[in-house]
Amino acid sequence: xxxxxxxxxxxxxxxxxxxxxxxxxxxxxxxxxxxxxxxxxxxxxxxxxxxxxxxxxxxxxxxxxxxxxxxxxxxxxxxxxxxxxxxxxxxxxxxxxxxxxxxxxxxxxxxxxxxxxxxxxxxxxxxxxxxxxxxxxxxxxxxxxxxxxxxxxxxxxxxxxxxxxxxxxxxxxxxxxxxxxxxxxxxxxxxxxxxxxxxxxxxxxxxxxxxxxxxxxxxxxxxxxxxxxxxxxxxxxxxxxxxxxxxxxxxxxxxxxxxxxxxxxxxxxxxxxxxxxxxxxxxxxxxxx
Length: 289
Description:
By secondary structure, this protein is mainly α. Helix content is 74%, strand content 0%. The chain has helices at residues 2-6, 17-22, 24-38, 48-67, 77-104, 106-111, 118-144, 151-181, 184-199, 206-213, 217-221, 224-237, 255-282, 285-288. The chain is globular and about 65 Å long. The two termini are 34 Å apart. The relative contact order is 0.14.
């Protein structure tokens, strides 16, 4: 009896994200549940992962590339545009769904105790499942126009995916926990999602921002998503350009040596802050829900 008492653990005093790794089976079940629930009654199902970004791409390409003629000064503008859209969509879907994950699973949280971090992390995995088909379309389009990446660029693409996943998880933990107490968090995240596409060089080239901001351009570069999109352009867009087209400045100076390490540190810092915030607020989730 004494041995059993020694093994008792105070509720809510788990190891945070480490418990998610320990409960990998539960994580897989949650991911499957999220995918099934999301596409229940849907005719196209997972095909919406292709349809939505394609429609979004066509709207932006016609409005900006054709009507505003941005494609004239940006060679292979379609590749440039779609590379940014794919990555930003992954981030915004992760953040939006992670913010709502605890509230949406209120019934399960009320009934049993399990690591609460499982819910926002599961939404990131679901978003990754949607990201993969879009990435395959991007790779296919790049190959058509002569994409020849280096091993370093392929490795950079994997690194950026992981960095964006870490960034979205950290912010998702923060807003997901706060959303239990203040539903205004959902509105704040909706505004972040609305702004992030324009706050990163997805629809325009980074040199436009530098020309306007001048010596304050470094503030723009502190946004991890700005750096992530720029690296994605370096990976997928730059290798499709010819020698004549490469005379344009495709990436900012110090992108890989300065800004990418800074973006990674900021992302890891937000993950650490998110875990601290989540653990502190998770103790009373069941009562608040």
